[in-house]
Amino acid sequence: MLLARRCTAHMSRPLSASRILTRNLTGLKRNDLVKNSAYVGGKWIGAAEGATYDVVDPAHLKPVGKVPDMTTTDIKAAISAAHKAQISWKAKTGRERATVLHKWYQLCMEHQEDLAKIMTIECGKPLAEARGEVAYGSSFIRWFAEEAPRIYGDVIPQNAAGRRLMTIKQPVGVVAAITPWNFPNAMITRKAAPAIAAGCAIIVKPSPETPLSALAIAHLAEEAGLPAGVLNIVTASKDNAIAIGTEMTSNPLVRKITFTGSTAVGKTLTAQAAGTMKKVSMELGGNAPFIVFDDANVDAAVEGCIASKFRNTGQTCVCANRIYVQAGVYDEFSKKLATRLRKMNVGHGLETGNEFGPLITLAGFRKVAKHVDDAVAKGAKVLVGGKPHRLGGHFYEPTVLTDVTKDMLMTQEETFGPLAGLIKFKTENEVIEAANDTPFGLAGYFYSSDIARIYRVSEALEVGMVGINEGIISTDCAPFGGIKESGLV
């Protein structure tokens, strides 16, 4: 998932809208992977009320498909289908469930290119990154397929003669998942694969911006032999999202809610789920610090910053958001980071060599612009970028600002865009205090060659995940989640 291909041309690759339009969702090996129906109870259906909404390519802002705009009537039907499927699916052995999951994994990898193209079209992610996400997302299916036969219980030493104490693990029940647009494949498989492996049926409501990826992988799950109703995909526009979320959290047939998204929405869902005492998993917002100490390998730190900060055009929940650089290497790091960005290309994700795509929404684009304008007004200096890209639309130039301070919006809020603000610091204690000065605690990163410092700082950072001399930390075999207001796992 590292940004691929380092081109020497400046960020000026032209966008040929007409050419992209003709390529949108054509040229796939499997055109049947592009679905315009939701998937409920093993059937491809429309909304009960017949409504649809457009899926838009954020690069040229043109519709590329339509999907059902479902309401509470539809989500109730999906919950009912999942509840029915749960009865027989939980009775399967772990090995039987694993066999289906392994087949699903194989099909996803066989169709990696098609899944990547669909993803690029609907979310703007460069194709090389999209390919990486398909492999990453599929790895969760494989991992939990391997774990399915190993759902062990415990034998506990008895408290009295003639007794035996044992615990067993059983499926929790129907799971409801709400997933984001920035990883439209992996955020579904990360939730669906463990649920299915454990014997649970699941209903997924993908982001309104990126339903096509969800429907494509559901088609492959069906092809792998997953029984009807075990996996359900309910599509809905933003207008119906609140009502569907409320039904998911209040319906007594749903026993677990899993959500990836903003802290504000996560708090609402958690409060609603308390009414029926559902189990919850919440992966929420972040404000990740990225720290470069004087003893760091600066070149490696620059590459790690590129990978962490600018992957998916800066639109990931674990993106570096506050970049702290110690005074001794501040100037060197700043110059090298700016030089690398100037050599990277912006454009449609299907165009060869482009490493930055558009912001997926107008709101996201405006937030980046607002953060840049606020920082510059308060004294920050633009080292590279700093304005909307000449391609127009939702494209914004990858930007580096220096002389950033803690009173600027970009240090207080999660930018979710291609904006890196560099903050100079002097001492280790100073930077740890600054890094922890946030209500969020999802991920953190730092670069150092001092072994003693590595242990001290990794334990001092108030985050759920720490990357040490590494810009990408998520993997199928490691826990993922945060502390404080970044969620519950």
Automatic annotation (TrEMBL):
It is an enzyme of class 1 (oxidoreductase). Gene3D superfamilies: Aldehyde Dehydrogenase, Chain A, domain 1, Aldehyde Dehydrogenase, Chain A, domain 2. Belongs to the aldehyde dehydrogenase family. This is Succinate-semialdehyde dehydrogenase. Keywords: Oxidoreductase. Its EC number is 1.2.1.16. It catalyses: succinate semialdehyde + NADP(+) + H2O = succinate + NADPH + 2 H(+); succinate semialdehyde + NAD(+) + H2O = succinate + NADH + 2 H(+). It comes from Powellomyces hirtus. The active site is at E283. Residues 44-488 form the Aldehyde dehydrogenase domain. PANTHER family: SUCCINATE-SEMIALDEHYDE DEHYDROGENASE, MITOCHONDRIAL. GO terms for molecular function: succinate-semialdehyde dehydrogenase (NAD+) activity; succinate-semialdehyde dehydrogenase (NADP+) activity. Pathway: Amino-acid degradation; 4-aminobutanoate degradation.
